[in-house]
Amino acid sequence: MKVLAVGGGGREHAAVEALFRSGSEIYAVMKNANPGIIARSKEHLLCDEKDIDKVCAFAKEKGVELAFIGPEAPLEKGIVDALEAIGIPCAAPTKAAARIETSKTFMRELVAKHGIEGNLGFAHFDNAGDAEAYLRTIDHEIVVKPVGLTGGKGVKVQGEHLHSFEETMDYINEIFDQNIGGAGVILEERAVGEEFTQMVFVDGKRIVPLPLVQDHKRAYEGDVGPNTGGMGSYTDADHLLPFITQDERSQALAILQSIVDAMAEEGCPYRGTMYGQFMLTVNGPKIIEINARFGDPEAMNVLSLIGDDFEDVCLRMATGTLDRNVEFARKATVCKYVVPRGYGVKSESGHEISVDEDAVRASGSVVYYANVDMKDGKLVTGTSRSLGIVGIADTLEEAEANCEAALKHVRCDAMAVRHDIGTRALVQRRGDHMRELRSA
Ligand code: AMP
Ligand code: GLY
After folding, report:
1. Which of 159, 242, 271, 298 is the most exposed place for a label (fewest CB within 10 A)?
2. Over 90: is that where the pLDDT of 128 sits?
3. How many degrees, rounded to 5, is the angle at CA 181 between CA 78 and CA 414?
C-alpha cells in the first residue's frame, strides 16, 4: 500500500522501518532530512509538518491510501480531519480526539467526569493571581504544568525542580509572562512512585496492548537535571517491567480502555496509538499524561520488536477493525538517545555526526536517526535529540551491553548520552525505590 508517514524523528524512523518491513510504499513528509526515513521512502517532501495544505496536496498527488502521523503538533492542527476529508484513512486521532494530549485540562476533566480510576488532584488557572491564592490553601507538593504543548519540557516538580513557594510562583509567573504552552497552567498533585509507559493501539473502541516501557525524562545520569523529551528507554523480555505486577499493568490497561470508552461516548472516538504515562504508586497506577501518538523514544523499543505486519495494524486502527492481539518478540531492548551537548538547557547544534551502520548492526543493535539534517553533503546535529541506538537481546543486561557496544560507532564531537539507562544499577535502584514505598 502507499502510506504517508509524517514526521522526521526517531519515532517516525522506527515506524517507517516497521512499515517498510510490511511492504509499504512510503511517502514521507518531514522538516529535516532524516536519512533513515529517506532511505526507505519512495519519495519525500521536506516541509513544515503542520502545513496541512502542503501535506494533503502531496498525499493526494501521490495517491496515498493510508496515513501514519508521528508527532502531536500536526494532530493539534487537524491534519487527520483534513486527510480524512480527501478520503485517506489515518492511524491517528482527529483534532478533537487529540485533545487527550493537546489539552491537559480536557484529559483531567474527562477522567474526572467519567469517574475513571487513576486521576490526580488538579486545578486549572488562567492567571497567576488565582494560582497563587490556590497555592496558599494546599498542604501537599504539586507539579506545575503549562496547559498546552511544550514538547515535554514545560513540567516542573516541587521537591525536584521547585524548592519553595517563591520558586514555584516565579515559574508560574514565567509561564504567564512568556505565554508558555499558550493556555494557562495546571497545578497537579505530585504522585510518588515509579513511572512507566503503557501504549495501546486503538480503533475507536478496542485497545490492543504494547509491551511496557520505562522512559528517562531527566537530562543527566542519576535522574537529575531538567526534564527532556526522553533520553532513553528500556523494555524487558516478558513485556513487563521489573517493579510492576501483572495486576498493576491490568489496572493501567483498564484505565486506558475507560478513556477510550469515554471518548467514544463524548463523540470524539479515538483511533491511533495512545500513550499512557503512569506513575506506579502504592495506591496503584496514577495518570501522569495521555498522549495522542507513540512515545519517543518508546516507539523505537517496541517497533523494533513488532512481529505483526505494522501496515495492517495501522489500517485496522484507521478502519475500526482491530479485532486481535499484535505480536511482539519476547526480547529485551535498551534505547539510548545520542543528543547534542547541552540538550535540555541549550543545545550545541550544527556539529557533524556519523554512524557506522554495519558495525551497529553487528553489535546486535539498530540505529534510528532523529533530529539530524543534511548540510553540504554532511550529516549534522539539530537542537533536539540526534539519533537513537536500540540494543536488542534475550536479557536486559545483554541488550544494554549491545547498545553500549553500538554507541562506540557513533562519532560526533559535541554529543551527550545517558549511559546509565538500562544498566543493572539503575534498574535495581528503581526496583528498590518501589519496594521501599510498598513496605513503608
Ligand atoms: P509530562 O510532560 O506531563 O510527562 O511530565 C514530565 C515529567 O514530570 C514526568 O515524566 C514526571 O516525571 C513528572 N511529572 C509530571 N506530572 C507529575 C505528577 N503529577 N506527579 C509527579 N511527577 C510528575
Ligand atoms: N517519551 C515521552 C513522550 O513521548 O512524550
Report:
1. 159
2. yes
3. 100
The topology (CATH level 3) of 194-426 is D-amino Acid Aminotransferase; Chain A, domain 1 (3.30.470)
| 295 pocket-lining for ligand 2 (C-beta < 6 Å) | yes
Where are the domains positioned within the chain? 2-92, 121-189, 194-426
Residue nearest (by alpha carbon) to ligand 1 atom 5: 155
| Amino acid identity, position 33 | A
Beta-carbon-side half-sphere exposure of residue 151 (alpha carbons within 13 Å): 8
- Say how far apart CA 393 and CA 401 lie, in whole Å: 9
Contact between 65 and 38 (Cβ < 8 Å) = no
Assign residue 80 a region (left: φ > 0; alpha: ψ between -120 and 50; beta: otherwise).
alpha
pTM beyond 0.90, yes or no: yes
Percentage with pLDDT > 70 across the chain: 99
Q: Which CATH architecture best describes the domain 121-189?
A: 2-Layer Sandwich (3.30)
Architecture of the CATH domain 2-92? 3-Layer(aba) Sandwich (3.40)
Q: Are 110 and 268 in contact (CB under 8 A)?
A: no
The answer to whether 2-92 and 121-189 have equal CATH topology is no
Q: Which pLDDT does position 153 carry in this prediction?
A: 67
SS3 183: coil
pLDDT in tens, 135-165: 999 999 999 999 877 766 688 999 988 999 9
Determine which residue's CA is closest to atom 5 belonging to ligand 2. 295
State the distance from the centre of ligand 1 to the C-alpha of 300, rounded, in angstroms.
21
The residue nearest atom 4 of ligand 2, judged by CA position, is 295
Cα of 380 from ligand 1 centre, angstroms: 31
Q: What atom in ligand 1 is closest to the CA of residue 289?
A: 3
Kindly report, residue by residue over 241-291, the tens digit of the pLDDT. 999 999 999 999 999 999 999 999 999 999 999 999 999 999 999 999 999
* Pocket of ligand 2 contains residue 230 by CB under 6 Å: yes
